[in-house]
Fold this protein.
Amino acid sequence: MKMKEIHEIAKRYVVESIGNMASVGSVYFSEEVCRWSVQILAKTPKGIFTIGTMELDQKGNIIDMPEKELLLEVLRRRAKRDFSVIEVPTKDLKKVQEITKVNLIG
């Protein structure tokens, strides 16, 4: 399957099982384990947070998905932190770090 198809399958599943304040982010394929990994995101007034990762096989079947309660707990903990999430192109990251103190979250 193509990355776009995996993204759509994952997005539909996440919205149906968690709610419309959830979505998916980046999609990666690991040739080593032949699995797709998809970031699970939560949209909040404080920003968009990565709260987990789901895995799909090559055909788009979900093989690993954190339980809703775990994802909600991750979101509660992340939302308590006082920080902002910004997107910066890699080439500009060093400049941003020099201008301000940035807490990078992996």
Notes: The two ends are 27 Å apart (CA to CA). The chain has a mean pLDDT of 85.
